[in-house]
Design brief:
The protein is an alpha/beta fold and about 250 residues long. It contains ten helices and eight strands.
Length: about 250
């Protein structure tokens, strides 16, 4: 049950027919894991924390660099050299002290994934490392955890939703088979404009809130944003029958 303070704090959300107090309670009871607390993880964590997600796990072993500051909006010059997950947790607690925020200040590996994935309802991939993306995708399939993937470079970004609990849901490796070497471009090689990350991170947060409050979130759909033309494109994906990750698990 929501407290009087929570009713006031989230009043603009609970007045929405698609949320209400029941939806807000669902958010309060939810647990999410945000992997990568950089350009995407910053806006994702801010919006999910502000929305009242009760349990948030932040995973990132990287430290803050001056080159991050133009886009990673939780951090400032005094934070340079600090761990991203630790620092983000401190800032998020100032925004909403009632949420439980736990930090994993290491880079995700298979062992850590096997420990943390069973603890959460939803995983958000906010990384920029292709090897880690494949690992996250694989472990979400193994543990049957829904996954929201975001990526952005230059003026462009994309997001997709994978739900291993739906038999025909395509996974990341259906889209980018590992044996065909998926593109490993990131902001270090191609550059990135900060607002693109805000748009894609905002969409990841929106999809997460929708999912956790019982709304339908489309699977088998790649959503691509073109920031120069302010346009979206949606591409239909198909679960690959020979996918070594998801076709052997469902």
């Amino acid at each position: 049950m929501l407290s009087a303070n929570e009713q006031l704090r989230f009043s603009r959300q609970t007045m929405l027919k698609g949320i209400g107090e029941q939806g807000q309670q669902a958010l309060k009871n939810a647990s999410v894991l945000i992997i990568g607390v950089g350009g995407l993880g910053n806006p994702v964590s801010v919006y999910l924390n502000a929305a009242g997600i009760g349990n948030i796990y932040l995973a990132d072993g990287d430290s803050i660099d001056i080159s991050n500051l133009h886009r990673q909006i939780l951090f400032d010059e005094n934070d340079i050299g600090k761990n991203k997950a630790d620092n983000a947790a401190e800032k998020l607690q100032q925004l909403n002290s009632s949420n439980n925020i736990e930090v994993l200040d290491e880079m995700l590996d298979a062992e850590l994934a096997d420990y943390y994935f069973p603890l959460v309802d939803l995983v958000l991939d906010c990384t920029d490392n292709i090897t880690t993306r494949y690992l996250i995708n694989q472990k979400c399939i193994e543990h049957k955890k829904p996954l929201i993937i975001g990526a952005a470079t230059g003026f462009d970004g994309q997001h997709m939703f994978v739900n291993p609990n739906i038999p025909d849901s395509a996974c990341y490796q259906c889209l980018f088979p590992a044996d065909k070497k998926a593109p490993d471009n990131n902001c270090q090689t191609l550059g990135i404009l900060g607002p693109i990350l805000a748009i894609i991170g905002g969409m990841q947060a929106l999809q997460a809130i929708k999912f956790l409050t019982g709304h339908t979130v489309a699977t088998n759909q790649l959503n691509i944003f073109d920031g120069l033309n302010n346009s979206w494109q949606q591409f239909t994906l198909t679960k690959q029958k020979k996918c070594p990750v998801c076709s052997t698990k469902n």
